[in-house]
Write the structure tokens for this entry.
Amino acid sequence: QVQLAESGGGLVQPGGSLRLSCSFSGTISTPYILGWYRQPPEKQRELVALISSGGTTTYAESLKGRFTISKDNAKNTVDLSMNLQMDSLKLEDTAVYYCNGKFGKSMSNYWGKGTLVTVSS
């Protein structure tokens, strides 16, 4: 089992920045793919960004250049965390942001509870 804990959501003005973090604990197997997803009000959940255990990143096309995903981990994967730096935020970035992790050869799938990001003036 893997536990996920998100932090960093809140209220920010348009054009501002916000940094989300997600920590992973428990039995962490490699390979893994970590990701951020978001669900805007009255819309479906959508991919924001992914980062693999090897460091390869993938972004939603519309978010490239504004959002940056990164991870921090010790060599033994005991301490693993992921960050999402969000810059030049727009009103349409308002959403609940979810942390996700897929671990091991079976890609066991885990979700965080979500953190609300509100972009408003």
In short: The CA atoms of residues 98 and 113 lie 7 Å apart. The first strand starts at residue 2 and ends at 7.
